[in-house]
Amino acid sequence: MYITLFAFVIYMNSSALKSAISKLKRECVAPNGASLAKMARRQNCYFVFFRGKQKGPDGKVALYVGSVDDPRYKYWRGMIDRRNQLKAYERALKALEVVNAVQPTKEKPSVEWYTPPKFVDMARSVLGVIDLDPASNPIAQGWVKAEKYYTKDDDGLAQPWAGRVWCNPPYGKFSKLFMERALEFYQSGQVTDCIFLVNRTGAAWYIDLTQQFTAVCQVRKRISFWTPEGKPEGCPRYYNDFLYLGPSLRKFKKVFSDVGKV
User: Fold this and answer.
1) Are 194 and 245 in contact (CB under 8 A)?
2) Which of 45, 103, 130, 253 is most exposed, with the fewest beta carbons within 10 Å of its own?
3) Rounded to an integer, what distance in angstroms lies between the CA atom of residue 81 and that of residue 77?
4) Predicted pLDDT of residue 184
């Protein structure tokens, strides 16, 4: 039992244990709320009670008399095992909570990656001026130098966009949301030009959205983004695309053909 509990503490976190406990509690409920002992008696499943043996589902010491192949016995035995497992999980959860209280889990530092200045300068040479950066922070603005920018707290997806936009959005599901937002404001005429830097993906939503952009530059070499300290990413994992919306297709192609296929 101690080895089992130790394994639970090492390999399961509080959330996983609570989920397992909740599932087991549902499985340990007899039909119509009846106790297992009463249910067993109704099904002619007999028990002999005496001291020093396995406790039955009603808390009494019990031993089943009958064939182990009887499905009623298997059901009763399975319920007993699940209830014992439930108790072990609950003890493991308490032990884990004690460990966490004594030695709280350290939060992993949040790492933000920034576009190297040379790529921002390329975007600026196409746009002329960057009026808006909807996914930024004060550090990035040291070289983006947008007339206006939104931080994570501002929530750029909930704010109005206008003019000439540069955007290196948060990756994952947010890339899709920011791309949709750019298309919305471009089609309404509020955004006149827009350049995105995103991770390339073969997802259907990405293919569908990029087809609505004026041009796509598939960067030949994966971009090493910068840390807040100005250090490049050691081993970039993803290939990248620059996406363009606007009337200056010839200028975009001339500038970005140096880094990829447009």
Assistant:
1) yes
2) 103
3) 6
4) 95
Q: Give bridge partners of residue 245 from the DSSP assignment.
A: 194
Three-class SS state of 242:
strand
Q: Contact at 8 Å (CB) between 37 and 60? A: yes
| CA-to-CA dists, residue 50 to 43, 54, 56, 65, angstroms | 21, 9, 11, 12
What is the C-alpha to C-alpha distance for residues 117 and 203, in angstroms, rounded to an integer?
Answer: 28
DSSP state of 52: T
Token output for 146: 């947008």
Name the range with the highest mean pLDDT among 52-66, 143-157, 218-232: 143-157
The span from the CA of 262 to the CA of 218, in Å, is 6
Percent of the chain with pLDDT over 90: 43
* pLDDT at residue 208 in the model: 95
Report residue 43 as tokens.
């099904």
